[in-house]
Amino acid sequence: MSEATITPAMLSTAEVARAYREAKAKRAKRAGLLKHVFLIVTSLIMIYPLLWMLASSLKPDNQIFGDLGLWPREFQWQNYWAGWNALPVSFTRFFWNSTVVTVLSVIGNVISCSFAAYAFARLEFSGKTIWFALMMMTLMIPYHVVLIPQYLLFLNLGWVDTYLPLIVPRFLAGDAFFIFLMIQFFRQLPRELDEAAMIDGCSPFKIYWAIIMPLSLPAMATAAIFSFIWTWEDFLGPLVYLNNIEDYTVPLALRSFISSDGVSQYGPMFAMSILSILPILLFFIIFQRLIIRGIAMSGLK
Amino acid sequence: MWCAGPGAYWDTRMHKFLRRNFAGYAFLLPWLIGFFLLAIGPILASLYLSFTKYNVVRPPQWIGLDNYAYMFQMDQRFWKALQVTFQFVVISVPLKLIFALGVAMALDKGIRAIGWYRALFYLPSILGGSIAVAILWRQLFNYDGVINSVLRLFGGDGPYWLSDPRYSLWTLIVLAIWQFGSPMLIFLAGLRAIPQELYEAAEIDAAGPVRKFFAITVPLLAPVIFFNLVLQMIEAFKSFSGAFIISGGTGAPLDSLLFFTVYLYNEAFAFLRMGYASALAWVLLLIIALFTAIAFWTSKYWVHYENERG
Predict the structure, then answer these.
(1) What does DSSP say about strands B61-62 and B52-53: parallel, antiparallel, or unpaired?
(2) What is the pLDDT of residues B217-234, one digit of tens each?
(3) For B239, nearest residue in chain A (alpha carbons)
(4) What CATH number matches the domain at B71-308, 1.25.40.10, 1.20.272.10, 1.10.3720.10, 3.55.50.30?
């Protein structure tokens, strides 16, 4: 049958459907290719600044600017050594300080936020609805609004120039985001577990410790990871509360690179910048799945 | 016996009340302390301080509405800070959301290596708040930096991004857009929830991609768009470290990077004008509350939730 003899009336439904499917598959293939090109180009642009920073951390200062290349002509490894000791106090100290603050903050956040979340998700008590509404409202409050009175409070307690203002609030469930995240998770756990345990005579504390906690490890881990990343990157808190260079956390120390007059220190500055984000990068690579699920679940930052 | 008196009545009631509420409040206790000492207490305290003159050294001195009067009538920098912050919010948030939605749509419908793309696109959001990235950004937008080198490749001549007040805000807008990862992930989850049959039905009716986008994707995604909009708006009003680092802590050049938060920080901690800074803090709180309220109020005209349609 030549093509000329085909009239619309002669096309069977099956032929129409096949033609439609073929056209669709062809279109989809072309669209798929376009999409990949778009995605690859976009991700290269996204990632380029970070790779450029990595490359610059290994270049001599006079080759950093005006050079778009990502492969240093000569590897200047001593940038890392120079950066590590560029400030009056070495970065060993800054990394240790950051580690102390971050580890304690993570512990505080996970414990106190899971306590609050357990109360909201599983226990009955009078006034619960009001407290819950208030808790959700604190999500909106900018840190800048409470900063000044908090500062004055800690100043009066003599806590300025210590890590207490950075750590103690974490033990008081200061981050409502994490409470919210955990409530979402706790609510998915079957209530029958609690009820069965209650009938067996378990106290709420026992239920929290023996049932809720072990079953909620993914939620705890997600909160711990975000808490780690945000505390490690936190700048405003340390900026306000820490004035002595020996107490500086890594972000504050990095900032001294640009405020000090040492102009020809770009290589070492980038070297330390790379080291400062290394822990976060590692966490991201290892826990990527948990992080991405956590955002989809709660709309975190 | 004597224990049958009113005392015993109260005792048992008290006992019952305690037994019913003890565990709940015990678990809530850390949060309650934090709520009063670090959230609601400070908010009220800063309201009080906003009516005073206070430099930390001498006790606060009540001056009524003077701070607010000065702010609205005399303080040029306050208006400048408002203008810069609004400009940043109004430009960066829509661009970021459009970008996030575009990439999410490209990633939707089972593309190969989706995990890799997702991770790569999310990475900047996780690093974006760090000082390392702020420092990097300063150097990228240097006159000899990467951005101008790229422009030169195409024959253009880039401006002095960091020192020319006409262009400096764009460095931060680009930084904000670069961190489109989390709205993208939320859009992705939203796109997955749209039934494929709708698109197939539209295709049979010969609807083009543009038509499909505006007739199916946008209306069904409206709640997610709304959620992202509110979240990103609040985030943009609060942003601080980028502007602080790139402007060298002062909002320079010519106050073109004077974000509201940067101005507030400087008033409080560089000039120790705690009373005035508290007034600024309250204005910021009200602005954020107002914008959130507007978003919620207008949402009933353009956001329709699945279960409402009956």
Answers:
(1) antiparallel
(2) 999 999 899 989 988 999
(3) A142
(4) 1.10.3720.10
